Amino acid sequence: MAGVQRFPSGFRTEEIATDGATIHVRVGGQGPAVICLHGFGDTGDMWAPLAAALMHDHAVVVPDLRGMGLSSHPADGYDKKTQGGDVARVLDRLQIQEADLVTHDIGNMVGYAFAAQYSDRVARWVAMDAPLPGIGPWDEIIRNPALWHFNFRGPDVERLVKGRERIYLDRFWNELSADPKSIDEATRQHYAELYARPGAMHSAFNQFAAFTQDAIDNQAFMARGKLTMPVPA
Q: What is the pLDDT of residues 47-87, one digit of tens each?
């Protein structure tokens, strides 16, 4: 099916206020809860096929991260510790105490910050496709030329990308995906339009700018001890 799959008709959307942001959330299904966190170059829309498969026996919660997709674009709070708090506030609003956690890319980083701060609320955590700032060979990872985008930010960068969001995003889809051909034109147009919304690229760059603070926070989390829930990765 070409383009981004829609969420099933049984899903609803909510705008949930957290500490300094308003998070756009899709909710549907019944049963044990699963919360899915997206990465860069997409939004919570990426999880629609998984949501359709899970909704028959799970309550599925799919937010757009702070500053991304249809969530608000606050001036700050892009450190993943704060965004872990966003996840907690979303679950509070939905009266969900515990959930399975499924994350991708930057969603991994937010997911770790959530699990480290609220370990009693995560039954298990499935992590995909991204390192965690400050953990493992992070200093080597950030020197990898393929990851130049980690430090590509600032007002001049935003001027360079403005009106050319599609060119910037194509680089991720073409060079960093397993199969660029699987990301069809309609899908690329969909996400390029979302990232071209006012404030969207500024917020996206702030996700990367927060990595230095994320590394500090993650090392502090690690010092408290390892996560105790199962973590397929």
A: 999 999 999 999 999 999 999 999 999 999 999 999 999 99
- pTM to 2 decimal places: 0.96
- The mean pLDDT of 96-118, rounded to a whole number, is 98
Tokens of 22: 């308003």
Q: How many CB atoms lie within 10 A of CB 161?
A: 21
Residue 230 in domain: no
What is the domain extent for residue 31?
12-224
The encoded tokens of residue 55 equal 């909704």
The token pair at 141 is: 């990872």
What is the rounded end-to-end Cα distance, in angstroms, of the chain? 28
Structural domain includes residue 4:
no
Instruction: Provide the CATH number for the domain around residue 33.
Output: 3.40.50.1820
Take residue 92 and report the two structure tokens written for it: 């509070």
Cα 199 to the center of its chain, rounded Å: 17
Instruction: Strands of the chain (E only): list them.
Output: 12-17, 22-29, 33-37, 59-63, 99-104, 122-128
Q: Does residue 6 lie in a domain region?
A: no
Q: Which helix (H) or strand (E) holds 103?
A: strand 99-104
Domain count, the chain: 1
Structural contact between residues 79 and 213, judged by C-beta atoms closer than 8 angstroms? yes
Query: Would 91 be classed as within a structural domain?
Result: yes
| pLDDT tens digits for range 206-229 | 999 999 999 999 999 999 999 999
Whole-angstrom distance, CA of residue 43 vs CA of residue 164: 18
In eight-state DSSP terms, residue 198 is: T
pLDDT at 154: 84
Strands of the sheet containing 99-104, edge to edge, are 12-17, 22-29, 59-63, 33-37, 99-104, 122-128
